[in-house]
Amino acid sequence: MFLEELRSYCLQKKGVSEGFPFDQNTLVFKVFGKLFALMDVESFDGVNLKCDPERAIELRERYHAVQAGYHMNKKHWNTVRLFEDVDDSLLLELVDHSYDLVYNSLPKKVRDENPR
Question: Which domain CATH number covers 7?
Fold first, then answer.
């Protein structure tokens, strides 16, 4: 998967914005202001995604490309290395999972005002 494909996929989700809040290389995607994905645009070789802690462990054990989140909370974030043993369909499923975790953690008022 290429950067533009992943970027387009993320941006088509409800309430998603993108930006560079940390530096000029780290592209961040947020849903209603809460981070759900980030990646380096210079060396696009992986993406950090939020993950349910039990599923995170399972994925790390099953896939070489899934590692504890680089510079992130290792319990709740994975770094998924691209071009290894995770195919595009699984990557998009993990993006959806990350988005859903963050969206569902938003206050009810925010979710009610901004239904999918």
Answer: 3.90.1150.30
Question: How far apart are the C-alpha atoms of 88 and 77, rounded to whole Å?
Answer: 19
Report the domain count for the chain.
1
* pTM exceeding 0.90: yes
Its domain, for residue 79, covers 3-113
**Rounded-to-5 percentages of helix, strand, coil across the chain:** 35, 25, 35
pLDDT tens over the chain, length 116 residues = 789 999 999 999 999 999 999 999 999 999 999 999 999 999 999 999 999 999 999 999 999 999 998 888 888 999 999 988 999 999 999 999 999 999 999 998 887 777 66
